[in-house]
Amino acid sequence: MFDSLSNALGGIFDRLRGAGKLNESNVRDALREVRMALLEADVNFQVARDFIERVTQKCLGEEVLGSITPGQQIVKRVHDELIVLLGSNAQPPDLNGTPAVVMLVGLHGSGKTTSAGKLAAHWKSQGRNVLLVAADIRRPAAVEQLTVLARQAGVEIITPQAGESVPALGARALKAAWDATRDIVIFDTGGRFQIDADLVAELKDLQAAIKARNVLLVVDAAIGQESVHVAEVFHKEVGLTGLILTKLDGDARGGAALSIHAVTGCPIVFTGTGEHQGDLEPFHPERMASRILGMGDVISLVEKAQLAADPEAISNFEKRLKSNRFDLQDFLEQIQQMKKMGPMENLLDLLPMGGRERNQMRSHMASGGADQMKGFVKRNEAIIRSMTPGERRNPDIIKASRRQRIARGSGTTVTDVNDLLRQFDQARKMARQFGRMQKRLQWMR
Ligand SMILES: Nc1nc2c(ncn2[C@@H]2O[C@H](COP(=O)(O)OP(=O)(O)OP(=O)(O)O)[C@@H](O)[C@H]2O)c(=O)[nH]1
Ligand SMILES: [Mg+2]
């Protein structure tokens, strides 16, 4: 996502930073290039123009040009304005009702049913008590699809009864939610190839019955500017509180994500990045702006790590680090925590690195690097598991004969064992340095 835009902006800013003295004319030239890059990323024409106008005004002042680091100041101004573009005042869905009601609307195939399942799993993982409602009464297959997703997410589902109208189903579902003290109810609705009077009437009738505080449009980002148009029409006809942009995984340009809030005024609240239940991300404009500018998204990375990691393991690890007792058992635990964060390929977007480096890494991963890394992790795990607890706690006792035994036990070679021990040694040195640094910092305070 945003790959080509990220690359283009990276190049423009590199040149700007290398340009020595900046003046009005080379700043204007650079921003003209930024505008071209936005248009190539399929950003709405008007949105791109307004964006550049705002950034230009902010960049031509004495404060920027007269500063010691004008290039960096300009990147900062672009970053700030990108956040505004993506929706700086975006609010997450309002989940305070009893129950909180969320209604998903959208065209055929935009990803409503899939997103309903993803949201159920997401909120359930936050300890919420979720109920799904299949309010797409025209297609029995849609009810089946949502039933499967509800089972996957481990939440209850209400399905339509024979001859039941959509508003009647809505009222019954809310009563059921109330009786069973569910706190979030998600309605999946039927789609059409285009928004027509019939669909609008159906959605309005349902809304009159359920009074959803959250009406979220599910819209396919891969259709680019058309999705912006769809959102405008839905907002006018039905009244939206937020947007879920799906299929961002298949949209390398990202034009919809960059224009849809500016055009409709609706905040993007979630993005869909794949077909699986976990492929849903809450949308954070400031993090997305950082990703676009190749600054990475370290906050999301840390969050992923925290979500994956067991808090007890982390606190033990910190203790051991502080007391300088980092050993192979800790190393093994670290490997396991890393594995829980999911495939390396998915983390690449979150790491701060230049567009070119990112592309290199990505192609390295695709051409066998990812498998190599998995093999490597698996091998190291097997090696540590073949050691005795004493060896794990005190790797220095692992001499030649023990290395041979460990290699045999783990189905690896002595070279593999040596490699692992060398890596561990480096990790231990780093851990020591880190410990010393922490001590010094404490002392300085
Ligand atoms: N790659 C990718 N595919 C997605 C995403 N979200 C949904 N899909 C796929 O898009 C297709 C349509 O998704 P549905 O959830 O059935 O769409 P819908 O809006 O419920 O469609 P109707 O019920 O026909 O109106 C399915 O094949 C999904 O797997 C996403 O974020 N990324
Ligand atoms: Mg559906």
Which key phrases capture this entry?
eight-stranded mixed beta sheet, alpha/beta, 434 Repressor (Amino-terminal Domain), Four Helix Bundle (Hemerythrin (Met), subunit A), binds guanosine-5'-triphosphate, binds magnesium ion, 445 residues, Rossmann fold, 20 helices
Could you provide a short overview of the structure?
With 445 residues, this protein is an alpha/beta fold. It has helices at residues 3-18, 24-40, 45-59, 62-65, 70-87, 112-125, 140-153, 166-179, 197-210, 225-238, 255-264, 285-292, 298-308, 311-322, 328-340, 344-347, 355-385, 389-393, 400-410, 414-444; strands at 100-105, 130-135, 156-158, 184-189, 214-220, 242-246, 268-272, 280-282. The protein folds into 3 domains: 3-87, Up-down Bundle (Four Helix Bundle (Hemerythrin (Met), subunit A)), CATH 1.20.120.140; 100-294, 3-Layer(aba) Sandwich (Rossmann fold), CATH 3.40.50; 301-444, Signal recognition particle, SRP54 subunit, M-domain (434 Repressor (Amino-terminal Domain), Orthogonal Bundle).
CATH homologous superfamily classification of the largest domain: P-loop containing nucleotide triphosphate hydrolases
Distance between the termini: 43 Å
What is the global morphology? flat
Radius of gyration: 26 Å
The side-by-side strand order for the widest beta sheet comes to 3-2-4-1-5-6-7-8
Regions with little confidence, pLDDT below 50 for 5+ residues: none
Mean model confidence by pLDDT: 86
**Which sequence of SSEs, written as H and E, runs from N to C?**
HHHHHEHEHEHEHEHEHEEHHHHHHHHH
How much helix is in the residues? 55-70%
The appropriate CATH architecture of the largest domain is: 3-Layer(aba) Sandwich
